[in-house]
Each structure stands twice: as structure tokens, then as C-alpha cells.
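Long-time lurker, finally posting.

We've been working with DUF1003 domain-containing protein (Mesorhizobium humile) and I want a structural starting point before designing mutants. I don't trust myself to interpret raw outputs, so I'm hoping someone here can both generate the C-alpha cells and explain anything notable. Sequence follows.
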Amino acid sequence: MNKIVEDMANRLLKRKPEGFGPLESRVLQSTLERTTITRDTNKAVAFHETYGDRIADSIARVGGSWSFILAFLAFLVVWTAGNAWLLTRDAFDPYPFIFLNLVLSMVAALQAPVIMMSQNRQTERDRIDAAHDYEVNLKAEIEIMALHEKLDELRHSEIIGMRDEILRMAEQIRRIDEKLSARPVTE
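Top reply, 14 upvotes:
Generated this for you. Predicted structure of DUF1003 domain-containing protein:
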């Protein structure tokens, strides 16, 4: 890490750069080079996404929707009504609906791990987004502090300039006063 970055870290963040991770170092370097730090995290996640990941996300998206819940509820109503009342004697799956329970258990046994895989991927995506947000926020904070420093320097130099101007004007007033005092008073 170069001397300017170390100075920036000490001055703005009040921390030694040795304690920084690669993320903070990248932000400081980006600030120094005046480059952007933002990136499209969706592209980064999509680049590492496998076919199985996309399938898991699709199943989770469908399985967690109201349309799936309502369609599955309609399927259950049709199944139970058909087997309990309509097909009374020749029912495909008579009353305790053992086959329906088997089907539901298999769907749940397959759907639950797939949804958990999708949730784990979403958690990892959230971590990536949070790290990116931290980088952007840290850079914004550093830039704001740097702007405050520049404004303070401008204000300080302006105050020094005003002080010098006041001293110059006071000296002019003193000379004018001396000239007026030196003149004889005429009445």
C-alpha cells in the first residue's frame, strides 16, 4: 500500500492500514484513483450459477407462489371429492387416502431440500450484496470526509484572506487617521 493511501486511512478513517482487509484497501485505492467501486452483483452471481441452481430457484419460485398453493389446494379438493363421493365403490384411493399421503410426502421430501438450496443461495447472494453495499458506503463516507476537508481548507484560507484584508484596511485607516491628526485644525 502506498504512502498516500496510508495517509488517507490515518487521516480520514483514523485507523492504521495494516488492519484493513482487501475490501477496505480496494476502496481506498479506488478513492485515490477516483474510480467507481460499484458493480453489478447480479452478473457476478449469475456467472457462478449452475444449471441445478437455476432449477432450484425456479422450483422455489413456483413452489412458493400463490398460484401453486391455490392449484395444489384445488388438486387436493378434486382428489378427495373424486375418491370420497364420486367414485365411492370404485375409488382409486379410498378414504384414508393413503396414496395421496404418499404423493404428498414425496413432493414434500423433494421440494423442501430444493427450496432450502435456493434459500442458501439467496443467503449467499445477500452476503455478496451486503459486502458490496459496505464497499459503496465506505467509499461514499471517505469521499464525504475528503469533501469536508476541502471545504474546511477553503474556509480556512478564506478566513486567513479576510484577516489579511482586515489588517490591510486597519493599516490604511491608521495612516488616514495619522494624516488627519497631523493636519492643523482650521475653524
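Before you design anything, note these points.
Helices lie at 3-13, 22-33, 41-47, 51-63, 66-86, 98-182.
Residues 179 and 185 are 12 Å apart (CA to CA).
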